[in-house]
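Work Package 4 report. The design task specified in the project plan requires that, given a folded chain encoded as structure tokens, an amino acid be chosen for each position. We show below one input record used in the internal validation round.
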């Protein structure tokens, strides 16, 4: 599986907890079947809402991104604000928190 994704999951779980009382949704896309995703999440807890079998969304219909992990931030109006390929090298929590806080202003 995606080692960079696994690496950032604990920090991203902290974001979910931090924004739990705010109007922020966290969704993860996975190309695998729902059964594979469920088994994976048993070993690697991830508090995003998973969308299994999302490969068609990723590569065919929208061509939004070409690798994993890929983060898309959507503003209050539903417009894509930022698209990030890969994992920030340091301070994952702070990096995404700053971006999200800017969108919530």
């Amino acid at each position: 599986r995606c080692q960079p994704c696994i690496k950032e999951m604990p920090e991203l779980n902290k974001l979910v907890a931090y924004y739990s009382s705010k109007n922020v949704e966290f969704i993860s896309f996975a190309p695998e079947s729902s059964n594979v995703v469920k088994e994976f999440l048993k070993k690697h807890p991830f508090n995003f809402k998973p969308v299994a079998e999302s490969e068609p969304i990723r590569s065919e219909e929208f061509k939004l991104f070409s690798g994993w992990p890929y983060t898309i931030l959507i503003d209050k109006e539903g417009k894509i604000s930022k698209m990030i390929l890969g994992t920030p090298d340091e301070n994952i929590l702070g990096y995404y928190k700053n971006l999200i806080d800017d969108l919530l202003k």
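The two ends are 36 Å apart (CA to CA). Validation will be extended to a larger panel in the next phase.
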